[in-house]
Amino acid sequence: MSSKKNAELPDRDALLAFLAREREERSDGKIGVREIARAFGLKGEHRLALKQRLAELAAEGVLEKRGKRLTRKGALPPVALVDIVDRDRDGELVAIPVEWNEAESGPPPRIHVRAPRRARPGEPLPGVGDRALVRAEPDRDAGPNDPPYSGRVIKLLLRARHRVLGVLHIEAHGAGRIVPIDKKQAGRELAVAAADIGEARHGDLISVDLVGKTRFGAPRARIRETLGSVTNEKAISLIALRAHDIPEAFRAEALEEAERANPATLRGREDWRELPLVTIDPPDAKDHDDAVHAAPDAAPDNIDGFVLTVAIADVAHYVKPHAPLDRDALERGNSVYFPDRVVPMLPERISNDLCSLRAREDRPALAVRMRITAKGKKLDQSFHRIMMRSCAKLSYQQAQAAIDGEPDETTAPLLNSVLRPLYAAHEALQHARNLRAPLELDLPERKILLKPDGSFDRVVFPPRLEAHRLIEEFMILANVAAAETLEERRQQLIYRAHDEPSREKVTALSEFLGTIGVKLAKGQVLRPANFNAILGQMKGHEHENIVNEIILRTQAQAEYTHENYGHFGLNLRRYAHFTSPIRRYADLIVHRALIRALKLGEGALPETPAGELAEIAARISAAERRAMAAERETVDRLIAHHLADQIGARFEARISGVTKSGLFVRLSDTGADGFVPAATLGREYYAYDEAAHALTSRSGVSYRLADMIEVRLIEAAPIAGALRFEVVGGSARRPPPAPRKGGPSRTSASPKKFRGRR
Q: Same domain for 390 and 480?
């Protein structure tokens, strides 16, 4: 509003309307006397009259002054600090403002909280108990019982600042202390007054709120929730679930929907029940969402080629958009796998029953049929909504043993008709894979085996079989076919994307390789083949392990996105996850998109704006990172618990990280991670060489990433999953017979010094 020479003082309604309008338009919420006077062109005596009128409105309880800001009484500022306190019946998060004067403004308004549009790497999803900054606005579509405000998370504040999970230890005098489970907080205990302990018992896993610090002694905490005894066999994975706010129980509406679901019929489906599809999975798999088949192509234009079929469980038939099952699945984002339990994305009625491709039972599926040449080049593809019947449930080991000449009673009848064609088609796909040259990193899988009582038994590293590679290549081809088909139909989708390494990481890699005599030109356009060439050059070399490790760390993290920028690691221009809708929400979106694009019946993706699809992609990317962190921490805690009674034992280890404060190590037998403080390395000064990933003493003794050393366990914190070691031997690099004067050579990374001590 422009300034007026003889402006009139606005009346009550005009002032309130202006404040409401400006609140929605201003991102900073700064609306005071100056802004109002400028907008209405008020000066001199009119400005004094404005102050008087605003004071009268405040006295009436219509307006509220917060600092220099004016707002309607009981209204939220545009940006508010909130605590997320609940979920509504649809599973959406509900928050209330942290700063609110109930005596003057009444009960705090509720805010429907939406997730961030783009989740940053490592950023957790918002959940109950979190504190966040939100941009809030009145929700014009809210019903009488709905939150009157809607807010989008600007920044999720770490819950560790106000919420801590830990183990309660009750002292003789009745007061308690809390030992945090977070590895980063190890050694930082909290104090709980005896009066605040309530019914909690010694050794219970509890959730506490921080209530303040004392000048002397531990910070004070108040028990919020008791989660049960930490000695319970399920406690270790429960810690991860609570620490990462992973939903464990399905809402009643979702369970009821799952129980009401009826098995799919042939209506609207092609009958493929005579096709001998087989499932090939880990031996302990409880759900089976993919089945495969291969046969020679009889078409004259594809001599010696193959027809491949990949059939995937038709989850979209049972999980409809925006229904209770769908809301729970989106909240989870994916299934989470712990050694002692699985937290599924969908209830067992769906995941382990109706959608699991059980042998010799009719199951609905979405199938892709692809023709490939003898050299593995894909000629075409077509998608079909089918009814199938798996002819066998096989494990990787079973399938491989049969091909290797040791069939059992299940695989013997399938050897020539089913398994040999699958392996022949896989051999053809290997030609195409070699030409594509995806990134070839050697990453052994670690698996924790438990005893019948749920306690730790041992760690195994299962061998990677040709059967694993066969299924992997079939799934990659099907995923590519899904992305291509949707792009051809101009249908929006969620891609699985993997960006190329950042310039900073490539520069750091180049500098490191230079220290071992390997050249990698800075600034060149890198492809996976460039990394593979370096890995091949280092095969059998003393630096093989460290090069593998650093090339892995150079890579970006894959994510889900509605915008396609390719998959660097697989060296593919377009890629989408299609093959696991039982355990990944992204795959369910792709299924729905295919159903919509190809007009395959019910369960299609509804009209979805690009912004909403971007938000879904961000949410499930964050959920994936959350699951990975929870799974990793649970394994760390299990192994630390197993090693807790082995203090003083020696282990062979490989250096997995080097910092100025010490060495991160990984034990060879269990894969357990631990830390060697620099103070335990010796009496000398050590220099941290960032480019070389090494700590080097003045006398030339050095510890470098990927070196093998022998360590002694000196401390274990099972609940935090933390292990501390000291070096007692191994292949620390010793100085040459005649060291140069001036100590170790320096690099452009400007090594930092510290003094080690025993």
A: yes
Distance CA 732, CA 67 (A): 62
pTM assigned to the model? 0.76
Tokens at 462, concatenated: 């299962």
**Cα distances (Å, whole numbers) of residue 108 to 93, 102, 148, 172:** 16, 7, 11, 42
Structure tokens at 57: 């409105």
pLDDT tens for 103-143 read 556 788 899 987 665 555 455 677 777 777 788 888 877 88
Final residue belonging to a domain, choices 232, 264, 290: 232
Q: Are residues 434 and 313 in the same domain?
A: yes
Greater confidence (497 vs 189) lies with 497
Instruction: Identify whether residues 195 and 294 lie together within a single domain.
Output: no
118, 224: one domain: no
**Between 657 and 132, whose confidence is greater?**
657
Number of independent structural domains in the chain? 6
pLDDT tens digits along 368-392: 999 999 999 999 999 999 999 999 9
> Could you give the dihedral angle defined by the CA atoms of residues 348, 351, 352 and 356, in that order, rounded to the nearest 10 degrees?
160
- In sequence order, the 6+-apart residues with CB closer than 8 A to the CB of 75 are 23, 64
Instruction: Give the CATH number, domain containing residue 112.
Output: 2.40.50
725-747 burial string, b = 16+ CB within 10 Å, else e? bebeebebeebeeeeeeeebeeb
Sign of the dihedral defined by the CA atoms of residues 181, 186, 187, 190, in that order: negative
Least confident span in 126-140, 390-404, 443-457, 730-744: 730-744
Cβ-based neighbour number of residue 509 at 10 Å: 23
Same domain for 364 and 480, yes or no, is yes
CB distance 577 to 590 below 8 Å? yes
Expressed in angstroms, the distance from the first to the final Cα of the chain is 73
C-alpha angle 270-273-278 in degrees, rounded to nearest 5: 120
Closest CA to 189 of 221, 212, 152: 221
Whether 334 and 372 share a structural domain = yes
Q: Are 602 and 714 members of one domain?
A: no
Angle between the N-to-C axes of helices 610-643 and 324-332, in degrees from 0 to 180, rounded to the nearest 10: 60
The confidence score (pLDDT) of residue 751 equals: 37
Top-confidence residue, 130 or 726: 726
Q: How far apart are CA 705 and CA 663, in angstroms?
A: 9
Name residue 757's amino acid. Answer: R
Instruction: Identify the domain containing residue 679 by its residue range.
Output: 644-755
User: Distance between CA 30 and CA 35 in Å, rounded?
Assistant: 8
Select from 427, 464, 271 the least CA-distant residue to 419: 427
Token code pair at residue 38:
């400028």
In a domain? residue 244: no
For residue 593, which of 512, 450, 482, 695 has the smallest C-alpha distance?
Answer: 482
